[in-house]
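pinned: reference chain
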Amino acid sequence: MEVTHPLQVQTIGNGHEHTIMGTCYLAMALCQLGELSKARALILESLDPARKELGEKHPATLTLLHNLSEVYRMLGDIPEACRISENVYKARLEVLGPLHHETLLIQSITAINLRELGEVKKARDMFTSALAGLKQVLSFEHPDCLTCAHNFAELLRREGELTEAEVLFEKVYHARKRVLGKKHKETITTIASLSAVKLAQQNITEAQKLMENALTLSSHLFGENHKETAMFRWNLSGILAIKGDVKLAFDNLALTLVPIDESLVMRLGNLSSEAANLTLGINNTHMDLLLTLLFHTSLIREPQTVKRAFAVILRRKGIWADVERARLRQLRTHRDPHVRALGSKELELLRKRAILMESMMSQIKDIALSRVSSLPEMAKAIGVNRLGVISEQLQQQLSTIDAERQDVIAKLGALTMETTFKNTLMSPTPEEILDRLSPDSILVDFVRYSKLKLEGDKHESLGDFYAAFILAPGRDIIALDLGSADNLDNGINKLRQSIAERQKNSVLEASTYLSNLLIKPICQYFPDGVKNLFLSPDGQLCLLPFECLLSPMIPERFLVEEVSMVYLGTSRDLVISTDSKVMEEPAKALVVAAPDFDLCSENQTPIGYLKRFDPLDGTIDEGEKVSCRLRDSGYETLHLVGADAGYENVKTNLMSGVSIFHAATHGVFDHTKALGAVLAFQDPSKSGKRLYILSPTQGLLQSYLALAGANRIFFKPSEEVKQHLCSGKLSALDILEMDLSHIKLVVLSACRTGQGAIVRGEGVFGFRRAFTLSGVKCLIMSLWPIADKETVELMNYFYSLLLSEKSPSPAQALHQAQLKFISTFRKQSRWPDPFLWAPFICQGSGSKSSIK
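pinned: its structure tokens
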């Protein structure tokens, strides 16, 4: 088929009806082979010719769109699948009539999408109508009618109408067995669905028997490692867990997650950031069950079981970041200029969407925002009563941008997904991680998860918890349950607030509380002589500087006085990161300090001034001292200050091959606009409700450094979206668009540069993520507003150590600078206030002494 299709295009044209139908057949064949990115790109490539030559409502064009909807559903982008299928249904209803086979088929598929989005009543009505029509036009035993009946029964099961669901599933099973055979994949799927009904009816024995039957048949049909087999094994794990056979449930689940993660990587590489975030939330259930099982019984005391659990964490945590990193690396270095251009186009459209979403949010007074991690939660968000209204013009602009993005992402997926897939799945083993740790080092990998209730068919959540995996050379991996996430999150918020208020007693109380919950349980597993602590945080722990926790080993001393700390995005970074010292070869450095925030260039006329950013006197001194130290150490240093510290100048020089980038200015993270959420609003042109998903990527636009001209506001009339723009901002989104793999060290001496939108298992969406994905080896950043004068002193200490003859790593240099700061305070009988020395943390590139 892949041979004949190009011949059709060549002989009769790519818009001919026969060619379009050939495209449909080839696309569906590619879907069967799991080549979803190629299938989507093929369909999108044929859409314009089909529309031009055949028309928007021609049966062949509608079949093409029908298939596109199915591809998006397979990828997990249900909102996009539903949007397309609804449009196709309306067109077929108009052109073919309500009882045409094709109309009924797309009606049934639209009902599936609506069911997944939680619009149950609408889905039920469509299923009922479609099923009645298919029975009339075809027969109940026709495969399309059986598919509709099966999916309708699934809706009934989810709604708790178990008797009705069981009756319908039984009818479908017997009909499929007669028509398709016992070993057909659709028949096997119905057996698994009957198992789910039995489980909901508390008939555990029968549920297990049916699911084991489905698993056996699927293994013979597809193989042990196929994603279909994996899903049946996943369901069996849940049944075994409820039954109390925890060890067998864990073993099945661990086997299941390898093919599931492979499928997840493929989907993440083919989805927009909004859909990818939702997909991750849904897939977190796998991790939840795995950790619930691990901490449920004595499994936690079995070293091999703990190692298997950590192997899953090692592969899954930060998986989206790895997919993005692999994609961006490939796009920046690809030989084909067309691929590189598409990559730039995708980032440009991401920026346009982020700016447009900001405009939409500013128009809505009664905005309905809700964090979502599953489709039912999305449905709940859509169902809010207080809805804003935005203009049809903005809606149309957003629809246009999203359609263009889908096209670009599809083309990129088809061209690059195979290499991205391979690079992402090259995860190190636990043994490789242990081998990278020296005898005086220890690694703690934190995981946030939802503990599940191991009874009933829905695995209800008992709340979020934190766990820690502790790795030390020559020892078994240890897993610890650290308790309720609410307790730790509240403690983190209290400590941060106490530090901001600079109340000694409150800081000591909050620090002691957190130390007892976090450090005390862990430190009992520290080997003697530990000097280096690698930390891979998750959730709100990403906002905690562990340095300022009180040491449980020596009273009234901070943890930083006992060990040096390096923060990692994931434990994989311990293997991926380079060990090179910053001063191995004198190179170039860029220092940006004390920008002129009120600057206005001659060719731009501002419409006003925000006067948001006041001058920072200390940054002038800081920039001069840092530049002098770098020059004295052999660095060719460019020091941009005042009017020279503008957006274009900074951006151009960042990409000029510098090894070190130091920024001393105002840093901003606008958390009110950076939530990963659903934005629901009233459609002004219709009676229904509409929604758009706000990706955590929105946080990349809301994290920025203030540069020259940051206080001015002006219009750019040429922009597609008229928007208040400040040219004096260097956002994390700007950083994401650059290839900064030549930079070994970035120091952001500005407020809140380590903050951003937090996504469970993926870290912080702000400068942290942007610099990491752009290829930077090591990043020093702040977790709260920093003190002007004291930061100058701290940075002076830091660079004097970093550029000394001993040439320590950035993490070691920061550690020693903090110790010097604390020591100076203690000698003066002053309280070593963490507000002054603890805001900065170092992520990436450990030291020679701690990494072999």
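why pinned: The first helix runs from residue 4 to 12. The chain has a mean pLDDT of 85.
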